[in-house]
């Protein structure tokens, strides 16, 4: 599978014990994590959305089945689940993410695509704490350190920047409210 971040039509300290900047994953590290770290197709789909769409973990967890159109290859992040709840974002799904989503055979036909276990229902969807645990186990399996759920968003934004995409266009895809907040990613 191709894990290069593609354009849609000073070193910061690595994260340690919850502090510092989340690590930016190389395409080789991402491939290793997806192919050898994650155990379930659900987890590959979840973190694939974060990696290939540059979304926050909370945004991915709150996606509902009606937000994903596999036939058109589009994911819609409704403004109600985005940080600040200001703007809806819609992104095309590349071939690798589409494949990861298609492999997720247990994806519900309606409701949250990453539902919580029946006994652990608080919001109806998998919690960010559980997502962190899943990621930690996958990273431990492949020996990656300094990775957090935010690493996938940072990797996406950094990948677009390295491809010479304009900051204004990156801001549009990433959903940042201001150029100042986006520039913190690009300067790191």
From TrEMBL:
One of its GO terms (biological process) is DNA integration. Residues 1-21 are annotated as: Disordered. Keywords: DNA recombination, DNA-binding. One of its GO terms (molecular function) is DNA binding. Pfam families: Phage_integrase. Belongs to the 'phage' integrase family. This is Tyrosine recombinase XerC. It comes from Acaryochloris thomasi RCC1774. The gene is xerC_6.
